[in-house]
Amino acid sequence: MLLAGSVVICTPVMAGEPPAPARQTELINLIRQDCGSCHGMTLAGGLGLPLLPEALKGKSPEALTETILRGRGGTPMPPWQAFISEDEAGWIVDMLMKGLPDAH
Amino acid sequence: MRIENVFRGLLGLFAAVALSGCATPPLRGTGDLGLVIERASGRVAVVETSHRTKLGQIAGLGDLSHASVNYSRDERYAYVFGRDGGLTQIDMLEMRIVNRAVQSGNSIGGAISQDGRLVAVANYTPGGINVFDAVTLKQVANIPALDDNGKPSKVIGLVDAPGNRFVFSLFEAGEIWLVEMKDPAKPVVRKYKNIGKEPYDAMITADGRYYLAGLFGEDGLALLDLWNPDAGVKRVLDHYGRGEQKLPVFKMPHLEGWAATGNELLVPAVGRHEVLVIDQGKWTEAARIPVAGQPVFVVARPDNRQVWVNFAFPDNGTVQVIDVPSRTIVQTLKPGKAVLHLEFTPRGEQVWLSARDDDKVVIYDSETYLPVSELHVDKPSGIFFTPRAHRTGL
Asked: Quick one: how far is CA B333 from the chain centroid?
């Protein structure tokens, strides 16, 4: 739960509460596995762009959150809003920008 | 060359005997062997289909998300293509890594040539293909996928074709390249341009005649008839889906392993809950079969009587069976959580399915649709059996 704590402290952009620990584990698994099918399991990129901290540095977290929720028209990036809430998307962006911990 | 090979074989034999000490391992064939990718841990499990057991594990293969496997024509060696550009040659009998090359930053799959002497790898970054000697894994050719303006493309849909050729597509440029490798040092590249927007995967029919690329950026499929390469690439099924709202695609479908049932092909529709039946010859849509989700793999049983389908997130716990003659769903199964891939035994009496989030491979009887057994495998994805060695395009 160290994880949740550190998220709250260093995320000024994130409005909502971090997801519950069980949901965090689920989301991290989703990112590695299901986002990973396009972005690579290590998130180093594939059909989709790399989602590693170096690659996202300097990008707007709001815009990235928007991309996750609504997808990016004209590209294969699909909208995830049916499965991921706005707060959760914000939390994901924050995790991606910091570097994702292992699912295990 | 041949003497060298014999010598190599003998050396291998001595090595095997030496390794095993006094106990000579029982001789066995490789025709019932296979590999299951353990995608999260960079390992593969060696399995056999006669008694449905796991024989061992081989570690150290790198990032195996989206990994695929080809086999040498003697079914002794596997070539595992990893996401991180790693190409690993595995000895199926000794269950060890023979050779390994990390050949690019980011790769997506490979193919082995008709004569079995060349292994080609398709790369995303830098986009192109690298070709290796199948015995030594020494690189023999590099073909960058650059369009006319020098802009690189991701390579997708790499397959082998008769005549020691490789065929692949360029995602960004929208091109199909046909490469003849009779002299590996001098590949002859023929480019087909403007074949359609964003080809995302491709396949070749089992007879090696038709290469078909699925398009993501627009409707339809791009078709190249390798018996008539001068006729160029034709767009087929381009009315499919026109004017209709597409669903978002949560996982790119695969075109590999589709069913050729005499005169028909069954392929996954992109962004739709449908499997398409294509009239092969007229290249028109014969039917659409509604299914439980967005299809990912549409795999025919070897006798082509049935087709088994798995689905993209969020329907990836479901597998459906289509009866081909009647084009109806005859079974809806729940083999486990996140079913990523399926593979039939050589003659199709059973089918192996990987349930990633349940850490298991489930084996079904394809006549009764009942589970026969399961194996514990860590985060399994692709399942590849050795008889692929003798099939064009696999």
From this structure: 23
pLDDT score at A102:
63
Q: Fill in the DSSP letter of residue B366.
A: T
ipTM for the assembly: 0.75
Q: Can you give the CATH number for the domain in which A93 is found?
A: 1.10.760.10
Closest CA to B393 of B168, B127, B98, B96: B168
Q: Tell me whether residue A41 is in a domain.
A: yes
- Report the chain A residue with the minimal C-alpha distance to residue B316: A34
Q: Identify all chain A residues contacting B106, using CB atoms and an 8 Å cutoff.
A: 40, 44-46
- CB contacts of A34 in chain B (<8 Å) are 250-251, 313
**SS3 track for B233-302:** EEEECCCCCCCCCCCCCCCCCCCCCCEECCCEEEEECCCCCEEEEEECCCCEEEEEEECCCCEEEEEECC
* 3-state secondary structure (DSSP) of residue B125: strand
Q: Which helix (H) or strand (E) holds B203?
A: strand B199-204
Domain containing residue A57: 2-97
In chain B, the percentage of residues whose pLDDT exceeds 90 is 70
In a domain, A102, yes or no: no
Phi, psi of B114, rounded to the nearest 5 degrees: -55, -40
- In A, minimum Cα distance to B246 occurs at A78
Report the C-alpha gap between B40 and B83 in whole angstroms.
Answer: 12
C-alpha span between B307 and B23 (Å, rounded): 45
Number of domains in chain A: 1
Closest Cα of chain B to A73: distance in Å?
A: 10
> Chain A residues with CB inside 8 Å of B338's CB?
33
Tell if the CB–CB gap between A71 and B200 is shorter than 8 Å.
no
Is residue B336 a contact partner of residue B323, using CB atoms and an 8 Å limit?
Answer: no
For chain A, give the percent of residues with pLDDT over 90: 54
Residue A104 lies in a domain: no
Buried b (16+ CB within 10 A) or exposed e, B74-83: ebbbbbbbbb
Neighbours of B126 (CB within 10 A): 17
A103 assigned to some structural domain: no
Q: What would the pLDDT profile of B192-246 be if each residue is shown by its tens digit?
A: 999 999 998 899 988 899 999 998 888 889 999 999 999 999 999 876 654 456 6
- Tally Cβ neighbours within 10 Å of residue B281: 8
Most B CBs within 10 Å, among A27, A30, A39, A41, to test the B interface: A41
Contact B66 A83 (CB under 8 A): no
B207 touches chain A (CB under 8 A): no
pTM given for the model: 0.87
Q: Cα separation of B177 and B162, whole Å? A: 15
Question: Using the beta-carbon criterion (under 8 Å), do A40 and B65 form an inter-chain contact?
Answer: yes
